[in-house]
Amino acid sequence: MRSSMTFDDPFDVDITISLVLSCLEDIRMQLEGNNVVEIAEDISLTQNLARYQLSAFLYATYIHLFRSLLDVPPRRVAKYVELVFVNTHAFYSRSRGNFSLWPAFIAAVEAYTEYDISLATEWLEQSSNFGLGNRRKIKQIVETVWIRRNLVQLETNMDKGLIPIDWREIGLDTDILLV
């Protein structure tokens, strides 16, 4: 569905982005008392698993917003990448269920440190137990992003955290459903 906003005024985009960030920040503050390590024992397993999913979606939304709209380098979203995978790991440590694809994928394509790549690889292995060819395509896209980032780093000697690779430009002739 296309937005009916025309953004005729140059400040309309600024206001919209500010509103989105404000909403994200409100949600983050509500969740802050419920960090992965601080979740109360008396809360049901289902509620905890839902909270891990919600937290991962929140942090992935920050990643997507910053990378897609503001074109920041991966280093700028590294903390959010880590937080997505902290929640992913917490989910899998308590469940053999299926973790949502979108937040983990969005984090995985922005992973560039050895630690974050290891967390993303762990998720890719876990998620391969679900779905069909879609999961293999996801893995292929993620690994292609990592390879391209490594190649640019080797050619330019740039820090990998400063090398943005847009996963949407990976031409694998595939149609994937991330949600």
Can you offer a commentary on this structure?
This protein has one domain. 22% of the residues are buried. The model has no long low-confidence stretch (mean pLDDT 84). It has helices spanning 10-32, 45-68, 78-94, 101-108, 114-127, 133-156. The radius of gyration is 17 Å and the shape is globular. Helices cover 61% and strands 0% of the residues. The longest helix is centred in the first third of the chain and has 24 residues, at 45-68. The two termini are 16 Å apart. The protein contains six helices and no strands. With 179 residues, the protein is an all-alpha fold.
Helical residue percent band = 55-70%
Weakly predicted, low-confidence segments = none
The quaternary state of the protein chains shown equals single chain
How many helices does DSSP assign?
A: 6
How many domains? 1
Strand portion, in percent? Answer: under 5%
Number of strands: 0
Question: Which sequence of SSEs, written as H and E, runs from N to C?
Answer: HHHHHH
Global morphology: globular
